[in-house]
Specification:
- The complex is a heterodimer of chains A (120) and B (546).
- Chain A is an alpha/beta fold.
- Chain A contains 4 helices and 7 strands.
- Chain A has a domain of 53 residues: 3-Layer(aba) Sandwich (Rossmann fold), CATH 3.40.50.2300.
- Chain A is globular, with a radius of gyration of 13 Å.
- The termini of chain A are close together.
- By secondary structure, chain B is α+β, with helices and mostly antiparallel strands.
- Chain B is built from 17 helices and 13 strands.
- In chain B, the strands form 3 sheets. Chain B has a 6-stranded antiparallel sheet with strand order 3-2-1-6-5-4, with helices on both faces. Chain B has a 5-stranded mixed sheet with strand order 8-10-11-13-12.
- The chains are: A alpha/beta (120), B alpha+beta (546).
């Protein structure tokens, strides 16, 4: 079973992601902030991380840079309410980019695509 | 004594004095005037005077003496009056010439007036004139314009035409400029094109004339020690005048004038007159040239001002749009997250709600409505994004200076220096300013990463339709292996703190069609070269096609 890490500061969104992605057959672990995410990563391995860009007072982009530097074998998907981050060069480090939506079809497809691309 | 002349009669009848014309009958009764104006020059009076002189009258010798002196004075006065008339004409001509020259800033008009004045009968009456002007660098005298007939037949034709139309100097010059300027240039093209003399040839008579600042009359040119025989042969005449045009120690050019058709000798008076004339001509030519240059500079400034205004408008628009973008983004974020939760859970509930459950309709409505609001949000965000032009024309000097300012603090911390001398007159580059600024900052930071006292040199040069931008450092020796590691994404040797990596810069630039070349010579240093377009792709395609 593929292990996914979901990082989002909104509890309801973490719950929604967890429910939906578990239904798709993934093992889902969630984190509310950067520190918690890094701790979860240290504790175990993940096949993919889904990161929110705006994490209250923190930046998902900074977390992304850190992950690319330290765990560049772990693919990442950025998930944001802002479509404009697609054009932000910093966001180009991620393997995928999804604009937040109540319809999680696009996110699910992107997870499948990125995992397949990385051979996971 | 019997007198032949009528000087002793107060009134005479018509016909009695052969010197009084029919239209001057007043003299028949104006006794004193008749004596002074007619009798004193009359042969009969001279004979009467001689007879009186022989009469032994004590006053006879005195009267003869007074008459002789009167005649001399009268001749002197007539001569002076004639000289005065000539001078008056010349002053009038120079005044007319001065007014025309002073009122014009059009170089062609000034030259037309100057050469017309030299050759017009009402002017200095020379047959032919050549004008040579110094080039912009003031290193070469170049044949610019000529006026005059090339042979006798043409001369007669021109003079007859001028005599039939009594025109003032301004009209003559205007006619020359509108009707004959191009034709005269073409007519003398063969001579003018051979009149190219470098100012360094100090032995050439034209350069000597220019240096001396005095008009020189050349006689016997074919055997003159200072005149190049080839130059004399080119003019085809042995006597000519060289008139240097100098204004405030600034050399303007030389006028050559001659009488190649009439061969009338050139007098000292001609020389003096032309010398007087040369100063206003030089002044007018210099002023017209300066005015021309001023116009060019003005149009450049106007163009630059227009571009600046456009850029300012663009910046203002972008700032407004940025504000709109920030507001809409903030609203979108505030709305999208709860909307996503509502829509997402509604979808989850829908999946587990049986088809026959009456609540399903309500849940479906929630899904549809949230999807509708999400689509409106997308439209708003996409619209605000579309208001930002990704690529536009930018001044590369400003972009580089701005990037250097952005990394100045980091440079100071590392005692680093970034050298950049803006190159003037570079065309604008058509780029995504955010991308170029980001890459520039990354490359400068990369150069200084992990090293103290680094010097980074940036240069921008125009190459055809591109600006070549180079960023070079000289502080380290990078091996080929290390260079390859630098270009490899997420290379462990590369510290991510400084940016997202050289490979990322290269990939971002390549997406925009901008190649990034990195060279690491064995002697040390790294040089990044990016080639930035100065025209849009479609313009470039047209240029390439043509």
């Amino acid at each position: 079973m593929k292990r996914l890490l979901i990082v989002d500061d909104e509890a309801n969104i973490r719950l929604l992601y967890a429910d939906e992605l578990k239904d798709e057959g993934y093992e889902v672990v969630t984190a509310a902030n950067v520190a918690e995410a890094l701790q979860k990563i240290q504790e175990g391995t993940f096949d993919l991380a889904v990161l929110d860009i705006k994490l209250k007072n923190e930046s998902g982009i900074e977390l992304l840079q850190q992950l690319v530097k330290e765990r560049h074998d772990m693919p990442t998907i950025l998930c944001s309410a802002f479509s404009c981050y697609k054009d932000d060069f910093s966001a180009w480090l991620a393997d995928g980019y999804v604009v937040k939506s109540g319809d999680l079809t696009e996110l699910k497809q992107e997870i499948v695509r990125v995992l397949a691309k990385k051979g996971k | 004594m019997e007198w032949e002349c009528c000087w002793n009669r107060a009134v005479i009848a018509p016909g009695e004095c052969p010197h009084i014309q029919e239209d001057d009958t007043e003299l028949l009764v104006a006794h004193e005037r008749r004596i002074l104006e007619k009798c004193c020059d009359c042969e009969m009076f001279l004979r009467d005077l001689k007879q009186f002189g022989e009469s032994q009258h004590p006053l006879a010798a005195v009267v003869t003496l007074l008459h002789g002196d009167y005649q001399r004075k009268k001749n002197q006065i007539q001569s002076l009056a004639s000289f005065l008339d000539t001078q008056t004409l010349q002053v009038r001509f120079l005044h007319e010439l001065g007014s025309v020259l002073q009122s014009s800033v059009d170089l062609d008009e000034v030259l037309s007036v100057a050469l017309t004045a030299i050759t017009a009968g009402k002017g200095f009456g020379m047959n032919r004139a050549f004008l040579l002007l110094l080039n912009k660098e003031r290193t070469v005298l170049v044949g610019h314009l000529a006026i005059g007939p090339r042979h006798m037949e043409e001369a007669w034709q021109v003079w007859e035409e001028i005599s039939c139309n009594d025109m003032d100097l301004k009209t003559l010059a205007h006619n020359f400029r509108t009707n004959k300027l191009s034709a005269e240039r073409a007519k003398f093209h063969d001579i003018l094109e051979q009149m190219t003399i470098e100012v360094s040839r100090t032995d050439h008579i034209l350069v000597k004339a220019l240096s001396s600042k005095h008009t020189i009359l050349i006689e016997n040119a074919f055997h003159h020690p200072d005149v190049d025989p080839g130059f004399a042969a080119l003019l085809g005449i042995d006597t000519f005048l060289l008139m240097p045009l100098v204004f405030h120690n600034r050399h303007i050019g030389v006028i050559i004038a001659d009488n190649c058709i009439t061969h009338r000798p050139i007098t000292l008076n001609d020389m003096r007159s032309l010398e007087t004339f040369s100063f206003p001509v030089a002044f007018a030519i210099e002023r017209a040239s300066l005015y021309d240059r001023l116009q060019v500079e003005l149009s450049r400034v106007t163009e630059a001002n227009t571009k600046l205004r456009e850029q300012q408008e663009l910046i203002v628009r972008m700032e407004k749009m940025a504000l709109v973008g920030r507001i809409t983004s903030s609203v979108a974020h505030s709305i999208r997250n709860p909307l996503m939760v509502i829509g997402g859970f509604a979808r989850s509930m829908l999946k587990s709600t049986p088809e026959v459950d009456p609540k399903r309709t309500y849940i479906e409505s929630i899904v549809t409505e949230t999807a509708q609001i999400e689509s409106v949000l997308d439209e708003i965000l996409n619209y605000s994004d579309s208001l930002f032009p990704a690529r536009d024309f930018w001044d590369i000097n400003q972009v580089v200076e701005s990037a250097i300012r952005d990394v100045q603090e980091m440079l100071l911390q590392k005692n680093g220096v970034c050298l950049f001398t803006p190159e003037p007159s570079l065309p604008l580059v058509y780029v995504d300013i955010k991308l170029i600024s980001y890459c520039l900052r990354s490359l400068i930071i990369s150069d200084c990463e992990g090293r103290e006292n680094e010097t980074v040199t940036i240069a921008a040069h125009l190459r055809d339709n591109y600006i070549q931008l180079t960023i070079a450092d000289s502080g380290r020796v990078v091996t080929q292996e290390e260079l390859e590691m630098l270009l490899t994404p997420f290379s462990m040797t590369y510290d991510m703190r400084g940016g997202l990596g050289l490979s990322l810069c290269r990939s971002m630039l390549e997406r925009q069609g901008i190649p990034l070349i990195v060279v690491a010579p064995p002697e040390g240093g790294l040089t990044y070269t990016m080639t930035l377009p100065t025209i849009k792709e479609e313009q470039h395609e047209k240029t390439t096609d043509s």
